[in-house]
Specification:
α2 runs antiparallel to α3. The chain has one domain. The chain starts with a helix and ends with a helix. It is an all-alpha fold. It is built from three helices and no strands.
């Protein structure tokens, strides 16, 4: 998101950028849960954590868009 904001053509995120950033963050959260379940002893992956990560990523992307929209 910082790279998109640093060299923008427009300050607000476009729909494809919005979805791409959210999807990347959600996939990374899912990968962390899978790795936690398979590699770390004494810890397990949890679907609730995955959904919490995805919702948090969505809220941050929305908040970022609002903040950048007000600056432009």
């Amino acid at each position: 998101m910082l790279a998109i904001a640093r060299y923008p053509k427009t300050k607000a995120l476009k729909r494809n950028q919005f979805i791409g950033v959210w999807l990347l963050c959600s996939l990374l959260g899912g990968l962390i849960e899978i790795l936690q379940d398979t590699l770390v002893t004494g810890r397990q992956g949890d679907w609730l954590d995955f959904w919490s990560n995805s919702i948090g990523a969505m809220l941050m992307v929305v908040l970022w868009s609002i903040i950048q929209g007000r600056k432009s």
